[in-house]
Design goal:
2 copies of one chain form a homodimer. By secondary structure, chain A is an alpha/beta fold. Chain A is built from 11 helices and 8 strands. An 8-stranded parallel beta barrel of chain A has the order 1-2-3-4-5-6-7-8, surrounded by 8 helices. In chain A, helix 8 runs parallel beside helix 9 and helix 10 runs antiparallel to helix 11. The longest helix of chain A has 17 residues. The radius of gyration of chain A is 18 Å and the shape is globular.
């Protein structure tokens, strides 16, 4: 199998994309415990939380406190999601060095999720990117529903490329293509990533955010890596989903992705055995089994 | 994404590889109902059962009766698994036109599963293939643990190619590479299939039997198709597993595979919507949820 990169970066999003839909609220101490656990396994980018209104997402209300209490390791990037300029201001007060923000490539998804059109979202995110870049923050700008929309179906790659081109011109560090509804397939992932790769500057990293709704998460990961992706969003245990997208399930499980990448000779610097223990801790705290596979095998790997 | 075939054949194995480990025994009428259901959805090869000793696998004791009661459709292949010459004799009495048989590429797996060495198994299967070919039966010869063994770990591709070469020389119609323990990954599947494809005659079809133990089933399917596989084993709902291999789970779900293939433009002639109904019937009869994804989505596909 050709074209697989030698090494990629994984961003674990369990504490944000995962916990944001859980009923159980995690304390600052509990979140710090998982951050330490992820660091100990070798995870080098951790999405700590989001700077959003606590009324809408109470699970993320302590994000500022987590950042203030964090013992930052020099080789780990602690990132967060913001939705607007207020979030950017909070992130700046927390000395965050890396931020994610995104808009949807689907008009319907955009309206349902944010009560804004794509055009309005573009105006807003432009200001956020410019503000972040001016403050020296590495910006990752995302495109939700890039591989299909639960409401609209197919999404034009032209729209995705237009948004990517704007992001590139604004100086973002990374462009994230999100399969929010899990509607991508290996062919569409390969084609879209290849096209975006040809469209934007070489300096821009491409990353993928893949929901495993139809079981194609790992297949899509491989196709993305073959097409030029160098960063991948995953979630401990496969924790997560999206409350706004019918039937959407979580990201690919970090431990499953690392196991598969290890076996294919793609380095991540992460020890999946340790992640299994961490997933089991998360399952104990949530009182249910998570969708990831590796944590549930009697014999995860052969002799 | 390059190298995907335009059309492939799926063999549904739920009635054999699936039901053989279920406590609930399925009657002839119940099996016929599922066969009719699969036919109606467009499945064109169905593994009806196995001709094995009823003491060891009571779930398959009525295989002869199912074959006798079957209303055979001209465009459907009804196949079965045999383990020895006695099975071949029973299959001949049932007018079976297509048969599967296999040995393991792992010495330990072979001993544990059949109390025979690989060498002894080769002698036995040689007689079975010759007997089948002489009787005009299309033979599919399989190699279990081809992509790794739950006991031994890595399996030498040399051993797999040696067995494949013998099969080819005996005139088999198809060679099946089985990832019995779900230890394959896209890179190893691509490399092994490519190598076997270069090793055996062009007239031999290559097929894959992929257990989804570590969530890589569909990713491995795509890699196999890119390397020359034209036939794929699947199982309705993902029903199945292997009682002899710790942690092994079932085949990739037929409906999940067909959905993914449809989306990538690879034709199967199968309607996955119909399979979802059939999976739900199977779940009702077994009283539990099966691992396949598509049957459990509120909205299986976008508008």
């Amino acid at each position: 199998m050709h074209d697989l990169p030698k090494r990629i970066l994984l961003e674990d999003e369990a504490l944000r994309d995962g916990l944001q839909i859980e009923k159980r609220l995690f304390s600052v101490a509990e979140k710090l415990q998982f951050i330490k656990g992820l660091e100990a396994c070798g995870v080098r980018r951790i999405q700590v939380g989001s700077f959003v209104h606590p009324k809408w997402v109470p699970q993320m209300a302590n994000t500022d406190d987590v950042f203030h209490a964090l013992e930052r390791q020099p080789d780990v990037t602690y990132t967060a999601l913001i939705l607007n300029m207020k979030g950017l201001e909070r992130a700046l007060r927390c000395n965050v060095s890396h931020l994610s923000m995104s808009i949807s490539a689907s008009e319907t998804h955009s309206q349902k999720n944010t009560q804004r059109s794509i055009a309005q979202s573009l105006v807003e995110i432009r200001g956020m990117i410019e503000g972040g870049v001016a403050s020296g923050i590495a910006i990752r700008a995302g495109i939700q529903s890039a591989l299909g929309c639960g409401y609209e179906g197919a999404i034009s790659p032209d729209v995705v490329c237009d948004i990517a081109t704007l992001y590139d011109s604004l100086g973002v560090d990374e462009i994230n293509l999100a399969d929010s509804a899990g509607l991508g397939n290996p062919r569409s992932v390969f084609e879209l990533v290849s096209r975006v790769r040809r469209t934007v500057s070489d300096r821009v990293r491409l990353s993928l955010h893949l929901h495993d709704t139809r079981g194609l998460g790992l297949a899509n990961m491989v196709a993305g890596l073959q097409a030029g992706v160098v960063t991948l969003d995953t979630s401990l245990g496969g924790l997560g989903g999206c409350p706004f997208i019918p039937g959407a399930t979580g990201n690919i499980a970090t431990e499953d992705a690392v196991y598969a990448l290890d076996e294919m000779g793609v380095e991540t610097g992460i020890d999946w055995h340790g992640l299994i223990d961490l997933t089991r801790q998360m399952e104990t705290m949530l009182g249910r089994k998570l969708p990831g596979r590796m944590a549930h095998l009697a014999v995860p790997k052969a002799a």
